[in-house]
Specification:
The chain has helices at 52-119, 121-130, 133-165, 177-187, 189-192, 213-237, 269-272, 292-302; strands at residues 16-18, 172-175, 196-201, 209-212, 243-252, 255-262, 306-312, 316-324. With 334 residues, the chain is of the alpha+beta class. The chain folds into 2 domains: 7-30 and 59-81 and 170-333, Histidine kinase-like ATPase, C-terminal domain (Heat Shock Protein 90), CATH 3.30.565; 94-155. The model is unreliable at 1-15 and 21-45 (pLDDT under 50). The structure holds adenosine-5'-triphosphate and magnesium ion (MG).
Length: 334
């Protein structure tokens, strides 16, 4: 199953495949993380003896640390996107403000016309001519329509933000993934709209999936932002002016599969096996933490699912996200 329209970037053209055995257990491959020193030959490695209670305490601490990491990555990505969302809101607010100023002048003109009517028909005609009544009549309607449209846009953005963060309920629910993909696509719109078109190949009648929707949104967001960044790299190289992100949904057996394919820069074969490692990034310092895919992978694992990727450098990548419709085996524990 593949979603890229361009046949050059179709399945045959995307040979490099990776599915990490276990992202959480992978060796960190980071810019900043020092590689562990190999023990000198013959050196004794001491593994502390831990009783069951201590092991459980460690496991609990590890789970807490992972939860905190998840939360802070979410906050960081929301922070990164906040500027974009602010821009999206600022635009309609700007023209609503300007329309209200003009409407204030128009209302003043109309009140003047009513006063003139009281003084007589000749004065009324003069004022009507002065204020260009036919134009005012038409413009007034347009401006009200435009402002209502702007307010609807702001309301939609606020609703998308609410849906995205699931402020009302952060727990496991039967979820319409199309709705989540739509709200996440709207949230990342500012990262995408100048450089790429988005094509939705949504399967009609996709069944709801039992999942932690807020965490799954985080996965969608990271993949969509990664796709946008990969396309931006090609735009900056001058390969083209706009790329394509194709989001496809399908049912395969007991699973729902969401594919996010891009026509971006692709992943170098020597990097494919490392992209799910914590802190692995090819982005410049300050632009990527290298945590997005590793956290996405552990979220998807918690749901009993998997992520696979196929990529061809210079042509694009396709990430397949597989989620069991009924939720993962450890669903109740999360
Ligand atoms: N769609 C993609 N196309 C090309 N390369 C990708 C794509 N998705 C991920 N990568 C590669 O995988 C690396 C790791 O991705 P990951 O999302 O984990 O971290 P990041 O995007 O670098 O930083 P962040 O933590 O901010 O998400 C990226 O730096 C990039 O090299
Ligand atoms: Mg990322």
């Amino acid at each position: 199953m593949h979603a890229i329209d361009n046949s050059a970037a179709g399945p045959a053209a995307l040979p490099a495949q990776a599915e990490p055995a276990a992202a959480t257990g992978a060796t960190p491959a980071s810019r900043a993380t020092p590689q562990p020193q190999a023990a000198p030959a013959g050196a004794e490695t001491r593994v502390p003896d831990l009783n069951l209670a201590e092991r459980l305490a460690y496991a609990q601490k590890l789970a807490q640390a992972e939860q905190q990491l998840l939360q802070s990555e979410k906050m960081a990505s929301i922070g990164q996107l906040a500027a974009g969302v602010a821009h999206e809101i600022n635009n309609p607010i700007g023209f609503i403000n300007s329309n209200l100023n003009t409407l204030r002048d128009y209302v003043g003109d109309l009140l003047r016309l009513i006063d003139a009517h009281e003084r007589g028909p000749a004065e009324a005609r003069a004022v009507a001519e002065e204020i260009d009544l036919p134009y005012l009549r038409e413009d007034l309607g347009n401006m009200i329509e435009e402002s209502l449209d702007g307010i609807a846009r702001v309301r939609r953005i606020v609703q998308d933000l609410k849906d995205f963060s699931h402020v009302d309920h952060g727990e496991w629910l039967w979820t319409d993934l199309h709705k989540n993909l739509d709200s996440t696509l709207n949230i990342v719109n500012n990262e995408v709209k100048y450089i790429a078109d988005v094509k939705r190949n949504f399967l009609a009648g996709l069944p709801p999936v039992y999942c932690n929707a807020s965490q799954i949104n985080q996965v969608f967001m990271n993949m969509l932002v990664n796709a946008a960044h990969a396309i931006r790299a090609r735009v900056q190289q001058g390969d083209y002016t706009r790329g394509l992100i194709t989001v496809t949904t399908a049912v395969e057996g007991e699973d729902v599969v969401v594919s996010i394919a891009d026509t971006g820069c692709g992943i170098a074969p020597e990097h494919v096996a490392r992209i799910f490692d914590p802190f692995f990034t090819t982005k410049p310092v300050g632009q990527g933490t290298g945590l997005g895919l590793s956290l996405s992978y552990s979220i998807v694992r918690k749901h009993g699912g998997c992520i696979t990727v196929r990529s061809t450098p210079g042509q694009g990548s396709c990430f397949n996200l597989c989620l069991p419709i009924k939720g993962g085996a450890d669903t109740k524990a999360s």
